[in-house]
Amino acid sequence: xxxxxxxxxxxxxxxxxxxxxxxxxxxxxxxxxxxxxxxxxxxxxxxxxxxxxxxxxxxxxxxxxxxxxxxxxxxxxxxxxxxxxxxxxxxxxxxxxxxxxxxxxxxxxxxxxxxxxxxxxxxxxxxxxxxxxxxxxxxxxxxxxxxxxxxxxxxxxxxxxxxxxxxxxxxxxxxxxxxxxxxxxxxxxxxxxxxxxxxxxxxxxxxxxxxxxxxxxxxxxxxxxxxxxxxxxxxxxxxxxxxxxxxxxxxxxxxxxxxxxxxxxxxxxxxxxxxxxxxxxxxxxxxxxxxxxxxxxxxxxxxxxxxxxxxxxxxxxxxxxxxxxxxxxxxxxxxxxxxxxxxxxxxxxxxxxxxxxxxxxxxxxxxxxxxxxxxxxxxxxxxxxxxxxxxxxxxxxxxxxxxxxxxxxxxxxxxxxxxxxxxxxxxxxxxxxxxxxxxxxxxxxxxxxxxxxxxxxxxxxxxxxxxxxxxxxxxxxxxxxxxxxxxxx
Amino acid sequence: xxxxxxxxxxxxxxxxxxxxxxxxxxxxxxxxxxxxxxxxxxxxxxxxxxxxxxxxxxxxxxxxxxxxxxxxxxxxxxxxxxxxxxxxxxxxxxxxxxxxxxxxxxxxxxxxxxxxxxxxxxxxx
Amino acid sequence: xxxxxxxxxxxxxxxxxxxxxxxxxxxxxxxxxxxxxxxxxxxxxxxxxxxxxxxxxxxxxxxxxxxxxxxxxxxxxxxxxxxxxxxxxxxxxxxxxxxxxxxxxxxxxxxxxxxxxxxxxxxxxxxxxxxxxxxxxxxxxxxxxxxxxxxxxxxxxxxxxxxxxxxxxxxxxxxxxxxxxxxxxxxxxxxxxxxxxxxxxxxxxxxxxxxxxxxxxxxxxxxxxxxxxxxxxxxxxxxxxxxxxxxxxxxxxxxxxxxxxxxxxxxxxxxxxxxxxxxxxxxxxxxxxxxxxxxxxxxxxxxxxxxxxxxxxxxxxxxxxxxxxxxxxxxxxxxxxxxxxxxxxxxxxxxxxxxxxxxxxxxxxxxxxxxxxxxxxxxxxxxxxxxxxxxxxxxxxxxxxxxxxxxxxxxxxxxxxxxxxxxxxxxxxxxxxxxxxxxxxxxx
Lengths: 489, 125, 444
Known about the structure:
The complex is a heterotrimer of chains A (about 500), B (about 120) and C (about 450). By secondary structure, chain A is an alpha/beta fold. Chain A has helices at about 50-60, 85-90, 105-125, 135-155, 170-180, 195-200, 225-235, 255-260, 265-270, 325-360, 390-400, 430-450, 450-455, 465-475, 480-489; strands at about 130, 160-165, 180-185, 205-215, 240, 260-265, 285, 300-305, 305-310, 380, 410, 420. Chain A has a seven-stranded mixed β-sheet with strand order 1-7-6-5-4-2-3, sandwiched between helices. Chain A has a three-stranded antiparallel β-sheet with strand order 10-12-11. In chain A, strands 8-9 form a two-stranded antiparallel ribbon. In chain A, helix 3 (about 105-125) runs parallel beside helix 10 (about 325-360), helix 4 crosses helix 5 and helix 10 crosses helix 12. Chain B is an alpha+beta fold and about 120 residues long. The longest helix of chain B is centred in the N-terminal third of the chain and has 7 residues, at about 30-35. Chain C is of the alpha/beta class. Chain C has two domains: about 65-75 and about 345-440, Aspartate Aminotransferase, domain 1; about 80-340, Type I PLP-dependent aspartate aminotransferase-like (Major domain) (Aspartate Aminotransferase, domain 2, 3-Layer(aba) Sandwich), CATH 3.40.640.10. Chain C contains 13 helices and 17 strands. Chain C has helices at about 10-20, 50-60, 80-85, 90-95, 105-120, 135-150, 160-175, 190-195, 220-230, 315, 330-365, 390-400, 430-440, and strands at about 65-70, 125, 155, 180, 185, 190, 200-210, 230-235, 255-260, 275-280, 290-295, 300-305, 370, 380-385, 405, 405-410, 420-425. Chain C has a seven-stranded mixed β-sheet with strand order 2-10-9-8-7-3-4, sandwiched between helices. A four-stranded antiparallel β-sheet of chain C has the order 13-14-17-16, with helices on one face. In chain C, strand 5 and strand 6 (about 190) form a beta hairpin. In chain C, helix 5 (about 105-120) packs parallel to helix 11 (about 330-365).
């Protein structure tokens, strides 16, 4: 029987899971705050420490992590998260520094921040970075702020539109809106790439710039990238590089060399910091030299051997309280030092080799909408020979039964049955072959035993869920849950 | 196949309009639109007394995996909203032509002439 | 060979053969030579694990761990060991956003439990699990207010943390949201000034309790005035404090937000933490980010899923409420584990101990005759005093004794020139507090 309790359901009045120091000053009493205090206690659990540890250990077993098995979630770069990175940031002094401590007492932290800034600059070909943005989407927003500020500072107030391909991640147009600009979507050509004519048609003096992921969300390198950046620059716009797929380019191409002016890097993808179930990430933003002054405050700078914190007058302002997700950035720095230049050069090539190997092995069973080499990930558009109309969702769910995580599905939106597979450079030939075997087996099942796929998964902690119920009933807390159960009698 | 009722008018964005009298109309979404969205879990409607403008948003319908803006086919004042849909948005899936969304008093009844007939609407589907 | 790359020479040869190419480079043949890297990165050569450890040790030794008597949004509370043990489990640490609920019930369940705890601490209905930190949660809260009210101007209490104000002002500048300030009356939100500024353009107001001086504010009449004007009331609070103080729900606020750093997260040079953001059911569709809800599976078993996703960027794209994509899940777990072990009693006790320690320091500092309280208002664990002793001198003298304390407010505004802020948590011992007072007593 699988564990199935909420922490509130194992709670017993009077039990405790903490030990605090004894009172030192009994002369003072918080009750003196009188009617500033809340009227009733918060509904928090009362459990012993062992109860608590068992509870979370048991629910952790219902999760699937990178160390459980193959995790080919496209666009997310689920590579191995090295243990050493975790240990270093937790056991040393970094976690114990207050962000407002005197600068002389945080020289090591500032030095790490500064050196990582520089390493990212070298890897990306952009002159300077800020590590303050908290995540990829936050980096996009900050990068767009830099873009807008640049035009405003030149008095060019008309430029409020930003071009995005229709294959872009949803965060691109959403970030444009939050930045107070307007997204102009252009269609992709039949090769899944930017259509140069469509691009030319929207270029004018209202364009602030263009956001582009390269390789794009179809896993294809935009072969006309040099022409694209040239056209946008000639029209007075700036080029923004969405670093979501940067892993493919490590060791091969630098965004700065392709003509990009601004970019963000997802450290939790390319530089192996743990995804943590969806966060915290880290989304450093880098820029070409003419944009450096617009980077967000606070900035970390160096004078001879002394590191200091500066606030720059022309900056877009502050976009975080302090120095971003500093401990996440430190893990990435440990990874970069560990790999060193020679191994960093191998990341893109090995990831690309893995993805192409999967592409080649599965293209007889799954429909490959775009021929030719892919980069670090490959996108299929559902099953090839599919008499029972098995959907991508069913394929994904069946994979879970075979002990593998599903790829990203139904993205990119250009295809109806997208399956986006990203086998990172940390996956071995044997693991990938196992995956290929399973995918072929599923393709066979789709023909011979379609109901098994439609009902999958059956070996997981739960089966498919009722999402309509969740959205309609809106039970978001234990309080709601109790009310719902009681209302049912 | 999606159902198209003959006695209604339609917009290109898949809303239907039912003339109640010279001044008042009901507005809903077509069977095609409801089917495209799938199970509808929420209908976001304006309040009575708000004004709506032709070809502008007046609300949204949401399913589990999609959301679609509602575009008003006419200009006028909202005089009633279908309160039933607040608790039971699934009524739109069950019968999109009886689950009207809003009742509007028209500013300009001539606008109706711009809308599609049932036959024309079927044509674009 | 390298330990994170499993490819042997034979593996690579085999794979290339399957692909019918002679080198990995051929796979990149679609990329113009002009943009391809010609040389290796100009970076350090690979370090062994032992060398990386040594390098980090050197960096670490260039920092100095201090006894912390400062807060201003980041508090030095104790982190029970269970938190690290549980959050280090790879099932939680290395997984991604729970898109496949069948193999993500662990993540989804703790998100549901966290939402339940935040619901109860704030006294509102529903919390998300997505904000990066308190300041960005405050910016999102203000955007919610503009969206709910369909107005475009926010009133910012001058007693809101200046760091938070800086961040929301950046967000406002780019989104095109207007703002004005509500003055402080003797250190707290001035409701009379607020009422004067409320008009048909005001989307909402953001207040902070305890405010950035550490003072506890009284919001009697604020919600009524706000709602009568069809505006939205946002209350920003350190979440731990809501374990004892009047809740945003009791104050009839529409939105609550703030930082959860005080729930078992290290001070960590400011990050990562997580911002909480909660509201009423009525406004749930304006709430950005991931929300987890209860449902059942096909066999009727209890299950949790991400829900109301149609609001989000991956579906709504340019029309989404927000561009947020993270759910700050690991920090959700920190908070949930902390609140589980502290529980109903612990959260009160940790506040009571911090209160007692802070009040002892307060009395001792006033006793020196060198510090004065201009406000004379109730406070919890943080307070602000006036002194004519140079703040640099204070910082320097304390540093010599290994203490970081007394955050000078002078840098924020000239009107705060002589003000200095202290925060005291349950971690501070009598001996540490006495040591701090002893140093300050000796200064002139």
